Here is the input.
Amino acid sequence: MLATGGALDSAGKRAAFALFYAPLHFLVLREVVRSIPGAPAVSAVTDLGCGTGAAGAAWVLECERCTVQGVDRNAWAVAEAQWTYRTLEVNGRAVKGDLQRANLAAAPTRAVLAAYTVNELTDPDRAALLPRLLAAHERGARILIVEPIARRMAGWWGGWERAFAAAGGESREWRFAVPLPERQRKLGRAAGLDPRELTARSLWL
Here is the structure.
C-alpha cells in the first residue's frame, strides 16, 4: 500500500510501475482532463501520492500555464517524478512528505489531484483525507480523484460519491479507445492483459 510504501517496495514493482502503469496513468489522466469542462483552466496542481509524476504532468500539459507540486512519501517515486517533470518540460517539483500533511492551497484556479492513491490508503488515512479535500473545495480548489474501475473499492467509493455529490460534484466512469505505445502493448500481452481500452472512474469538484 502507498500508506506503508508496499506498492513500491521491490525493484520489480518499481520497474512495472515506471515502465507499464505510469504511461497508462498519463494517458488516462490526459483523456479525463480533456473530457471535464473547466479542468484545463487551472494554474497549479497539487498531486497527492504523485508516484512517478505521470498523472500530474498529464494535467499540467493540458493547461496553458500551470505548475505542479507532487507529494509522495517514497523517495524513489519523488526522484522519478522530478525526472518526469524535467523530461516533459513541466514546471513542477516533487517533495517527499505525508499527503495527510500536504498544504492544500485553495483558490479558484488551483486544483488537488489524487490519482490511483486513495484506494491504497489505510481506512483511517482515507477517512481523514476526505474532509480535508472537501474543505479545500469550499475555499475554492478544484478536486479530482481518479481510480481504476474495480469492485474491490466498493467499500469506500460509494461514501465518497455521496460526499462529492452533496458538495455539488460528479462521479463518472470513463472508457477511452486510445492507441497505446508499442512497449505498453507488448508488456500488457506478456502479463496476460489486453489493454485496448483504457478505463477509469473519477470524482470531480
